[in-house]
Amino acid sequence: MLCAEDLRHSFGPVRALDGISFTLGEGQTLALFGPNGAGKTTLLKVLAGLIRPEGGRAEVTGGRRAVGWIGHQSYLYGHLTVRENLLFWAALYDVARPLSRARAAELLGRLGVADRADVPVRVLSRGLMQRVTIARALMHDPEVLLLDEPFTGLDLAAAAEFRALLAELAGKGRIVVLATHNVDEGVELATDVAFQARGRFVQLAPRGARGPGEIADAYRRAVTGG
Amino acid sequence: MGEVLRHAWVIARKDLVLEFRSRTAFVSAAVFTALVLTVFNFGRDPTAVATVDLAPSILWVTFTFAAMLALNRAFQLELENEALDGLLVAPISRTSLYWAKLIANCVFVGVVECVGLPLFVLFFDVPVGGVLAPLIGVIALATVGFVAVGTLFSAMVIRTRFAELMLPVLLLPFLIPPLIGAVQVTARLLGGRPLSEVTGWLRLLAAYDIVFLTLATLLFPTTVNE
Questions:
Q1: Do the chains contact at B81 and A74, CB–CB below 8 Å?
Q2: How would you class B219 by CB atoms within 10 Å of its CB: exposed for 0-12, middle for 13-18, buried for 19 or more?
């Protein structure tokens, strides 16, 4: 379970989180939409434990071990190979070596970078690095996935494969929070949709049968008043 | 404790692999050591001051500034792709991170000292044959002390604008006790004095190591928390 209760946080005069509360259970995927500066990244960082909120509390069942986090940076070391990076991060999550090797091979194959496993990360393109970043976040098979603009840099095929992977994970009961400013991305994965603006949820509701067009209209009305 | 050390070793090994692959800091520190010893060798007047009186200070000034290069690089490695955030999100204790950097820094500085000591003997023609083991012992004792403090300060300054300038400014005052101790012990060893004459200084070095290793271990989490 992922639970946020009255989260508040400011950066100087800018209020990034202003009383955000929600709870997600097994298999729920929250698509979090908002314009630049709405506080989406701050919210995910608070949930991941990177920022201690000034008010309220965030709780993930299973603690930090249960969280898989994709932020704006890859957390990959350029002088290590793709495989070495994945094994390094898996070791910090106490994934046993034979299991982590198998998991790395499986994820790299799934994300289409198996042929780059022994290549130093510093020579990868932005898109390939993003695929490895996704694999890095999934190495320990997390219960909760916090994804901040995870489709950045992915080509159409990789984005489709990643969407399929997320759908599978949600089917297995994983909790996903997906933040993006692009309403077309990830809507079909969502069980719940939140619109965030100026640090607040201006709308939080189940997606129901709404498609991307309806979500986009609702987003425009809720966020811009248009 | 076992888990702390296991995670520490995973990170330290990664740091050493990165350094082995890039060699940037090691080459810089080794060249720096050779240059400083060369400058002192040609810049002194051997008829004015006996070599054995001057040599210990030169040795420790050289080692101290070479170590600064290692300490500066310890957390800079983690700024690549913001990997430090990944380490802070991972389910490892902050103590693991401190000990990882401590281990990697000790190995790194130790290797630089292994390069510097033969050069020192070569340039200054000091009689180390009979005192090599105690000399290595005192180098190890002093190195652990200043690496312990330096690793803590390195973490404190890493996100400041002038980290490379801030580190020596903050660190050097704290290095005065172990440096005085190390110079005194080295001078007496090279002067052929008995070991019993320096037990007080050795106790000071050992006490400094214990106190600052403990303090740094306790204080480190507050330096890396948000």
A1: yes
A2: middle
User: So what's the pLDDT on residue B226?
Assistant: 60
Task: From B19, B158, B142, B137, select the one nearest B84 (Cα to Cα).
Answer: B158
Give tens-digit pLDDT for A113-153: 999 999 999 999 999 999 999 999 999 999 999 999 999 99
| pLDDT for the residue A204 | 85
ipTM of the complex: 0.90
Q: Looking at the partner chain, which of B77, B87, B226 has a beta carbon nearest the beta carbon of A52?
A: B226
Cβ-defined contact of B83 to A77 (cutoff 8 Å): yes
Specify the number of domains making up chain A.
1
Orientation of helix B199-224 relative to helix B94-124, angle to 10°: 140
Residue A226 has pLDDT above 60, yes or no: no
Sign of CA dihedral B30, B34, B39, B41: positive
Question: pLDDT category, A107, cuts 50, 70, 90?
Answer: very high
Is B39 part of the contact surface with chain A (CB cutoff 8 Å)? no
| A54 inside domain | no
- Write out the residue range of the structural domain in which residue A90 sits: 76-126+135-141
Q: Token pair for residue A107?
A: 């994820």
- B150/A164 Cα distance (integer angstroms): 48
Residue A113 CB partners (closer than 8 Å, separation 6+): A82, A128, A131, A132, A135
The DSSP H or E segment spanning A59 is strand A55-60
Q: Does B225 touch chain A (CB under 8 A)?
A: yes
pLDDT digits (tens, 9 = 90+) for B53-107: 889 999 999 999 989 888 888 898 898 889 999 999 999 999 999 999 999 999 9
Bridge-based pairing of strands A2-11 and A55-60 is antiparallel
Q: Is residue A18 part of a domain?
A: no
Mean local confidence (pLDDT), A71-85 = 95
Instruction: Read off the amino acid at residue A194.
Output: A
Examine residue A71 and state whether it is found in any structural domain, yes or no. Answer: no
Measured between CA atoms, how close is B12 to chain A, in angstroms?
Answer: 11
- Is residue A113 in a domain? yes
The strand order across the sheet containing A14-24 reads A14-24, A2-11, A55-60
